[in-house]
Amino acid sequence: AYALGNMLLSGDAIGQDPARALELYQQAAQAGHMGALRQAGRCYQKGKGCQKDEAKAFDCFRRSAEGGDGPAAVALGYCYQKGSGCPVDDAQAAHWYEEAARRGLPLGQYDLGCLYEAGQGVPRDRRKALELYRQAAQSGMAAAQCNLGVLYREGLGVEQDDRKAAALFRASAGQGFARGQFLLGLHLVQRYIYLQTLQNNSW
Fold first, then answer.
1. What average pLDDT does range 147-158 have in this prediction?
2. Where on the phi/psi map is residue 104: left (φ > 0), alpha (ψ -120 to 50), or beta?
3. What is the spatial distance between Cα 12 and Cα 151, in angstroms, rounded to a whole number?
């Protein structure tokens, strides 16, 4: 039921039917499939095959995350961070992002890193943020590569290193990530101005 639900939701091979997909997710969830429960939450969150209902989405994500589903832990953390279907609770957001990060999910690592960098729901710790961004960046996550590059560029939580920053911006930009493209362009312009200044001063 879960696999067929995914096919019906995406429209792969058999045509799209979000309402039927939600029915199948609910059937699989009743049989204890935590991934199906999480997918039902996504349907409620986005209004696919049903009326949009953030409270029902939150409940699905909560039960799925408590049942051990990593992607649901990320989704639940997002709900707590944004107040989607529940009151805003940054500490709970950090808790569930950490659960996802422990399971090796790059998005959980990245989101938790953002909270540590900002001191949101957890004490500010740029070294911890750096390590979490590094873990997510190693999986190829463009946003994490970009944020890690900024820490290297500014020397926040790590020794300042323009070359590492540029390499990370380049990797992020190469995936079409807009912020990575902007920061790479900014780096190249600043580098050009610096070299021109050196050349002019040498005369």
1. 96
2. left
3. 41
Look at the block and give the residue holding tokens 């409940």. 59
First to last CA, the chain: 74
Alpha helices (H) in the chain, listed in sequence order: 2-10, 18-30, 34-46, 54-66, 70-82, 90-102, 106-118, 126-138, 142-154, 162-173, 178-201
Region 76-93: what's the mean pLDDT?
Answer: 98
> Which of 44, 34, 65 minimizes the C-alpha distance to 21?
44
Global confidence as pTM: 0.88
Q: Can you spell out the DSSP letters for 110-161?
A: HHHHHHHHHTSSS---HHHHHHHHHHHHHTT-HHHHHHHHHHHHHTSSS---
The dihedral sign for the CA sequence 143, 57, 34, 103: positive
